[in-house]
Design brief:
This protein is α/β, with parallel strands linked by helices. Helix content is 33%, strand content 28%. The strands form 2 sheets. Strands 1, 2, 3, 4, 5, 6, 7, 8 and 10 form a 9-stranded mixed β-sheet that branches. The radius of gyration is 21 Å and the shape is globular. The chain folds into 2 domains: 268 residues, L-amino peptidase D-ALA esterase/amidase, CATH 3.60.70; 100 residues, Ubiquitin-like (UB roll). It has 10 helices and 14 strands. A hairpin with a 6-residue loop joins strand 12 and strand 13.
Length: 378
C-alpha cells in the first residue's frame, strides 16, 4: 500500500476545473469529476437542520439512481437558505450537465460552497459547462481541487494505491475546508474516487467508518455548516474481485481510512488563521465514545486554543474542559501532558483513569487572524 500526497485519478475517471465567474476574484470556481463508466455512490451529509439545496437534490438522486456519472461542484456560492428557487437552480444545473454527457439527471451529484443566502448564478455555470466538459482530462484533478476552494490557502489532495489479488486499485481524494469546522461533518467538502469493484453495502459501510475516524474527529471553531458533504464514487474499472463486507473489505477500509485521515488533517493544517496543529489523545476512558467526548471538549475550548496560540502553559484550562465534558472524571485520576508549545505541531495527552479505551481528535489554535478572516467574509 502506497500513499501519494497528491491526487492521481483512478482508472475511468476524468476531471477539470475552471473559472466561470461566480467568484469576484476571477479564481477557479467550477469543478467537474466525471466517470466514464457508471459508478456506485456513497455519501454522508451535514447533520445541520438547515441544509443547502444541493444536499436535498443529492438525497433525492441517491434514492432514485443506483449508478452515477459525475459530481458538479461550484465554489463562491453555497446555494443555501435560497428556498424553492435554490432547489430549482441545483436541479437545473444537474439536468443541464446530464444532457451534455448523455446521462440521466438523477445520475448527477452536485455540491456548492461559499456565501449563504445568495441565489446561485446558474447561467454562468451553464455557459461554462461545455468548455469544462471539453477540457476533461485524466490529469486535471489538480485543477478541480483548486476550483472547490474558498478561504483555503492550499489544495487538499491524496491518493492511495494497493493490490487486490493481481489488480492494482486506486483511491484518491480532494477536499476543501479551513473554517466553520466541527464534527458530525466538519464545514467541508470531500470527494473520493476509486476504481475498485465494491458492493454497495460495503462501500457505504467503509465510508461511514472512515469518516467517523477522520472528518468527524476534527474541529477548528466548533461551528457546523449547511453544506458539509463527503461523496464517494466507485466505478469498478480496476477489474478486481468484488469487495464485500467480508472479502477484501479490510484492505479496502485501510486504504480509505488513510485517504480520509490525510484529508482531514490537511484541513486542520490549513485552518483559518491557525499557527498550530494540535493532536489531542484521550486514553484510559471507559469507551471510545467517552474518550472522544472529552477530546472534543478540550478541542472546542476557546480558552485552551488561545492559550496554545499564546504559548501559555495554563493546563488548568485543559482540566476545566475535561470536567465540563460531562464525563465523571475523578481529579486524582486525571493526568495531563502537553508537548512544547513553541513548536507548530503539538500533542496533548490526557489519561482519565477510567478504562482502556482511547480516541484522538485534531484541532488548531485560535488567533486574531481567524477573527479578521471571518469578520470580513461576505
Amino acid at each position: 500500500m502506497k500513499i501519494y500526497k497528491k491526487a492521481i485519478l483512478p482508472s475511468g475517471f476524468q476531471a477539470n476545473g475552471v473559472a466561470c465567474g461566480l467568484k469576484r476574484s476571477g479564481k477557479p470556481d467550477l469543478a467537474l469529476l466525471f466517470s466514464q463508466a457508471p459508478a456506485k455512490a456513497a455519501c454522508l451529509f451535514t447533520t445541520n437542520r438547515i441544509q443547502a439545496a444541493p444536499i436535498k437534490v443529492n438525497r433525492d438522486n441517491l434514492r432514485t439512481s443506483g449508478h452515477f456519472r459525475a459530481i458538479l461542484i461550484n465554489s463562491g456560492n453555497a446555494n443555501c437558505f435560497t428556498g424553492p428557487r435554490g432547489l430549482k437552480d441545483a436541479r437545473d444545473s444537474a439536468a443541464f450537465l446530464a444532457g451534455l454527457v448523455g446521462a440521466k439527471k438523477a445520475d448527477i451529484l452536485v455540491a456548492s460552497t461559499g456565501i449563504i443566502g445568495k441565489r446561485l448564478e446558474v447561467a454562468k455555470i451553464k455557459k461554462a459547462m461545455p468548455s469544462v466538459i471539453k477540457g476533461l482530462s485524466k490529469i486535471k484533478i489538480g485543477a478541480a481541487a483548486k476550483a472547490i476552494l474558498t478561504t483555503d490557502n492550499f489544495t487538499k489532495e491524496v491518493t492511495v494505491r494497493f493490490n487486490i489479488g493481481s489488480k492494482s486499485v486506486t483511491i484518491c481524494g480532494i477536499a476543501k475546508g479551513a473554517g466553520m469546522i466541527a464534527p458530525n461533518m466538519a464545514t467541508m467538502l470531500a470527494f473520493i474516487l476509486t476504481d475498485a469493484q465494491v458492493q454497495q453495502g460495503a462501500l457505504r459501510l467503509a465510508l461511514r467508518v472512515a469518516v467517523e475516524n477522520s472528518f468527524n474527529c476534527i474541529t477548528v471553531d466548533g461551528c457546523m455548516s449547511t453544506n458539509d458533504s463527503v461523496m464517494m464514487l466507485a466505478n469498478g474499472c480496476a477489474g478486481n474481485a468484488a469487495i464485500d463486507t467480508k472479502k477484501n473489505f479490510r484492505i479496502f477500509l485501510e486504504a480509505l481510512n488513510m485517504v480520509c485521515l490525510e484529508l482531514a488533517q490537511l484541513i486542520i493544517r490549513d485552518a483559518e488563521g491557525a499557527s498550530k496543529f494540535i493532536r489531542i489523545r484521550v486514553q484510559s476512558a471507559k469507551t471510545p465514545g467517552e474518550a472522544k467526548i472529552v477530546a472534543l471538549s478540550i478541542a472546542n475550548s476557546n480558552l485552551f486554543k488561545t492559550a496554545v496560540y499564546g504559548q501559555n502553559p495554563n493546563f488548568g484550562r485543559i482540566a476545566a474542559a475535561v470536567g465540563a465534558s460531562g464525563v465523571d472524571v475523578k481529579e486524582e485520576n486525571l493526568k495531563i501532558g502537553v508537548s512544547s508549545l513553541e513548536k507548530k505541531d503539538i500533542t496533548v495527552e490526557v489519561s482519565l483513569g477510567r478504562g482502556s479505551s482511547c480516541a484522538t481528535v485534531y484541532t488548531s489554535d485560535l488567533t486574531p487572524e481567524y477573527i479578521k478572516i471571518n469578520a470580513e467574509y461576505n
